Amino acid sequence: SIMPSYKLTYFDGRARAEVARQILYLADIPFEDVRISLHDWPSLKSTTPFGQMPLLEVDGQSLPQSFAIFRYLAKQFGFSGDSPFESAWVDALADQHADYFREILPVLLTIWGFTQGDRMALVKEVATPARDKYFPLLEKIAKDNGLNGHFVGDSLTWVDLLIAEHVGSINQHLPGFLSAYPSVIKTVNKITSTPRLKEWIEKRKETTF
Amino acid sequence: PVSTLAMPSYKLSEFDTRGLAEVSRQLFILSGTPYEDNRISKDQWPALKEKYGFGELPVLEVDGKQIPQSLAIARYLAKEFGFYGANAFEAAWIDALADQAKDFISDIHPYFAIAMGMVAGDTDKAKAEIALPAIKKHFDLFEKVAKDNGSNSHFVGSNFSYFDILISEFVFSIDSFLPGSFDAFPTVLAVRAKVTSIPAIKEWIEKRPKTVT
């Protein structure tokens, strides 16, 4: 069958699109990696289904919402778990991560330079409690899964990529912030040493977010 | 349709509330699948919390194995019972809409916190500044999606999906606080009308425990 064409549109950064880029690269699927400047976004916004990015186009058909994109690509290319039950756990962990990410986002937006704020106060009063609520759970999940280099099951899934990308971002801007979670760090290190992923990470453009 | 040969046992645990667990309850009902509707009281919860992986409800148990997170549960059941679109791309759109609905919950939540007395504030002010803009922002979008889908009383494709059920419940819940909020979205209301006209769902809505949310 003829391979569909894939086009991914997002800002010039990793944040909510990177997992999609990684899945496509890991699956060796060519895709158009479109990056929109903050300046150009307002005029493009109304042309998108939800007024948001990232946006995936598959043979010209649009799909919005980052997790829907990740889950769709993961399912197409074998990164969504080895059974319906495992897929459900990948989904559940991703949603749990999203709950945490929603809490910490205001801190990240300041660190990334999109909003003004007292960075130190935000880290202390917002990021730290959010981390302390979620990362012990992640630490336990990594251990309960046998410290096998995955958060769910025993093969690479999109939630592995999601968490690894986030940990990478945190390490970039708040080194040491996750030092109390060695099993998480160990698992993320194993994920990012997957050969083709390591290659992508090494050659990708460096961005603030 | 589910094979009765190896039917798993299903237990859905949640507080005595509809919330996002209600979608899953209705998926069981629509598919004619027996399940245990386990409602946990606030008093019972502290002792039970540790039993559940993420320390939160709802949790689905399938032959005793847990799945947490309301939408992960809904997606799992939708897949099992056939309420997830006709193909992978339709499924992805249903997921995208469900995640957009979660963003809507996040946006409107501060209004409910005030309206339900959990947080101090002026309810009328919250209605004007928080609730109505959130409804307009997200439901303009949902209305468009329903229209673009052919105004066939479904949001995606031509059969019931878990998102049809989810929105039907949202409209019910919010309308109870803000009557008439959805008058501007007739195509959305048509989806709700279709869901609630299914005899098994109609019957469930009549007999289910009456809760505020």
From TrEMBL, chain A:
Is Hydrolase set as a keyword in this record?
no
The cross-references to PROSITE patterns, in alphabetical order and at most eight, read: GST_CTER (PS50405), GST_NTER (PS50404)
What is the E.C. number?
2.5.1.18
Q: Which UniProt keywords apply?
A: Transferase
Domain GST C-terminal, by residue range, is 83-209
Q: Which GO terms describe its molecular function?
A: glutathione transferase activity
Instruction: Pinpoint the GST N-terminal domain residues.
Output: 4-81
Q: Which GO terms describe its biological process?
A: glutathione metabolic process
Kindly name one Pfam family recorded for this protein: GST_C_3
Give the matching InterPro entries. Glutathione-S-Trfase_C-like, Glutathione-S-Trfase_C_sf, Glutathione_S-Trfase, Glutathione_S-Trfase_N, GST_C, GST_superfamily, Thioredoxin-like_sf
- Keyword rRNA-binding belongs to the record: no
Record field: catalytic activity: RX + glutathione = an S-substituted glutathione + a halide anion + H(+)
Superkingdom is Eukaryota
UniProt similarity note? Belongs to the GST superfamily. Sigma family.
Q: What is the recorded name of this protein? A: glutathione transferase
TrEMBL record, chain B:
Tell me which PROSITE patterns the record gives. Answer: GST_CTER, GST_NTER
**Keyword Transferase tagged:** yes
- Give any Pfam family that matches: GST_C_3
Domain GST N-terminal per the UniProt entry, residue ranges: 8-85
GO MF terms here are: glutathione transferase activity
- From what superkingdom does this record's organism come? Eukaryota
Is Disulfide bond one of the keywords? Answer: no
Any one cellular-component term (Gene Ontology): cytoplasm
Q: What is its EC number?
A: 2.5.1.18
Kindly list the biological process annotations in GO that this record carries.
glutathione metabolic process
Can you name the source organism?
Answer: Pristionchus entomophagus
The EC category is: transferase
| Entry keywords, A to Z | Transferase
Q: Tell me the CDD domains matching this sequence.
A: GST_C_Sigma_like (cd03192), GST_N_Sigma_like (cd03039)
The molecule here is called glutathione transferase
Which catalysed reactions does the entry list for this protein?
RX + glutathione = an S-substituted glutathione + a halide anion + H(+)
Taxonomy, top ranks, is: Eukaryota, Metazoa, Ecdysozoa, Nematoda, Chromadorea
Q: Which family does it belong to?
A: Belongs to the GST superfamily. Sigma family.
